[in-house]
Each structure stands twice: as C-alpha cells, then as structure tokens.
C-alpha cells in the first residue's frame, strides 16, 4: 500500500534524524578507534616480550614433568571469554558467542565472562559461569580486574580443578578484519615448544624458580593485553556498523525522496488535468 505525501515526508524526517545519530556515533567510534590503536601498538611489544621470556624459561627447563607443562587429571576446562558491555557493534559479540559454542564442551567447561553481553547470553543458555565482570572501562583497564582473574586462574590450576585454562578473545588484524581466537594460557604446552629469543639469558637461581614467579605476572599481562585487543576490535566493529547504518539510511532517504517527488509530481499533474478539464467543460 502506497504511502501518502504526508506519511512519506514524515518517514524522510525520521530517517534523516536516524542518519544524524548513526553518523555522530561513527565519528565517535572513529576517534576511539584511533586512540585504541595508538595504545595497542604501545602495549603489544611489551606483551610479546613477556611471552618470549616465559617461552625461553619453559624451553630451558629439562624436567618435562614440571607441573605447568602437563594437564591436570580432570575433564573440566576453564575458559575466559571476552565480549562487550555495550551494543551497536555489529557482529562482534555474535562471532565470539558462536565461536565458543562451536569449540567447547558445555558440560565440562566453566566460564569466566568479561562483558555484560556475553554474561547474559551464556547465562540464558545454561552455561556454568563461575565469575563475571559486566562493567568494563573502555580504555583504562584496571590492573585489579586482570590481576584478580589471574590469581583465580593460577590458584584453581594449582588445585587441579581444571585440566587446562584458555582465553577466547577477538584478534585484531586490521581495522576491517578481526576474528575470534582461542589461546591456551595453562599449561604452557604451546609456549614451551617455541624458542624466539636467540641470545642466551642468565636465569638465577634456576629456570624453574624464575618461571614459578613469572607465571602470575604472565597471566595478568596476557589477560589485560588480550582484553584491550578485544576492546580495540569492538571499536573497529562498531565503527563499521555505524558507517553501514549511515550509508543504508542515506540510501533509504534517497529512495523516499524519489518516491515523494514522483507522488508530488503525479498529484500536480492530476490537478492540472482536472483544471484543464473543467475549463474545457465551461467553454
């Protein structure tokens, strides 16, 4: 059913108002994305250095029965899942949620969920959530959050509650590409096979002692930096979503304007025809 001129005009005003909002949100997201990128490129070398040192220590431990090199004798797994607290970020949360559902055993997995969106999603679907953090700051990621999670992870693994601990985050590749990824934090199976430091480091009193004291710091650093990387991906996803929404609103507005002008032209033509017909009838 075709809309009247007044209805079409009201729809154009509504779409124009929506387009202003999405355009403003796109500009805000672009600004936040630029800031997040700058911070990301500053912290990434630090994270890589920590991981390399952990890898070096693990590689130089001769005892392959070292507690942090093997899985505990249990079927339970602990996974830290990073989602967003705010919405309007396109398929960012959907991709993470789908990735988790496809890659974990629901009955043998406990979750630590960061972000309100993921907390509500997994809670509604009956997942066992042992801890959650709903209100996350955008850039000022508090040390207490990552530290408390790292402490829990470390203590629970030492108590043999879980065979392994992993984190699911969104890896930032570029401003248009970001994908869900799962990284195993404990045991250090993935790191012990990699040797990236070429020079020899002096480990005193031993590689075992150094690694024992470094693991909590490694966990804190890993969780904090990967949380920030996920937030960077969230901002990139939100910018794309708002850009697409603005483009769609602009396209819809153009279609409505065309429809309005056609209807208005048809109305004017009809009025002219009626006037001409009435004038001819008088003559």
Give structural notes:
The protein has 283 residues and is α/β, with parallel strands linked by helices. 61% of the residues lie in helices and 14% in strands. The chain is built from six helices and five strands, in the order H-E-H-E-H-E-H-E-E-H-H. It has helices spanning 5-59, 92-103, 116-124, 143-158, 189-192, 207-282; strands spanning 77-82, 109-114, 128-133, 164-174, 177-186. Strands 3-2-1-4-5 form a five-stranded mixed β-sheet, sandwiched between helices. The two termini are 39 Å apart.
Short overview:
The chain has 283 residues and is an alpha/beta fold. 61% of the residues lie in helices and 14% in strands.
Q: Which short descriptors sum up this protein?
A:
alpha/beta; 283 residues; 5 strands; 61% helix; five-stranded mixed sheet
Number of strands: 5
Name the beta content range.
5-15%
Write down the overall geometry: elongated
Percentage of residues in helical conformation: 55-70%
> How confident is the prediction overall: mean pLDDT?
88
Biggest β-sheet description: 5 strands, mixed
Structural class: alpha/beta
Largest sheet strand order? 3-2-1-4-5
Low-confidence stretches: none
| CA-CA gap between termini | 39 Å
Q: Order of helices and strands, N to C?
A: HEHEHEHEEHH
Rounded to an integer, what's the Rg over CA atoms? Answer: 28 Å
Tally of contiguous helical segments: 6
């Amino acid at each position: 059913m075709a809309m009247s001129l007044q209805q079409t005009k009201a729809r154009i005003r509504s779409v124009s108002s929506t387009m202003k909002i999405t355009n403003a949100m796109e500009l805000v997201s672009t600004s936040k994305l630029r800031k997040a990128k700058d911070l990301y490129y500053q912290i990434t070398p630090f994270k890589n250095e920590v991981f390399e040192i952990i890898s070096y220590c693990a590689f130089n431990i001769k005892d392959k029965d070292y507690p942090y090199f093997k899985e505990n004798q249990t079927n339970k797994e602990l996974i830290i899942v990073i989602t967003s607290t705010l919405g309007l970020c396109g398929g960012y949360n959907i991709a993470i949620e789908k990735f988790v559902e496809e890659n974990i055993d629901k009955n043998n997995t406990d979750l630590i969920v960061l972000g309100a969106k993921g907390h509500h999603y997994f809670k509604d679907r009956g997942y066992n959530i042992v801890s959650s953090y709903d209100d996350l700051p955008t850039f000022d990621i508090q040390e207490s959050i990552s530290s408390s999670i790292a402490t829990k992870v470390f203590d629970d693994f030492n108590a043999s509650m879980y065979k392994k601990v992993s984190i699911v985050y969104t890896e930032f590749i570029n401003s248009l590409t970001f994908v869900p990824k799962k990284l195993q934090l404990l045991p250090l199976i993935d790191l012990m096979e990699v040797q990236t430091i070429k020079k020899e480091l002096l480990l005193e009193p031993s590689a075992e002692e150094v690694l024992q004291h470094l693991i909590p710091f490694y966990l804190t650093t890993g969780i904090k930096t990967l949380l920030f990387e996920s937030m960077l991906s969230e901002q990139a996803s939100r910018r794309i979503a708002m850009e697409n929404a603005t483009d769609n609103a602009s396209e819809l507005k153009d279609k409505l304007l065309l429809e309005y002008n056609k209807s208005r032209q048809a109305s004017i033509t009809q009025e002219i025809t009626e006037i001409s017909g009435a004038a001819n009838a008088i003559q």
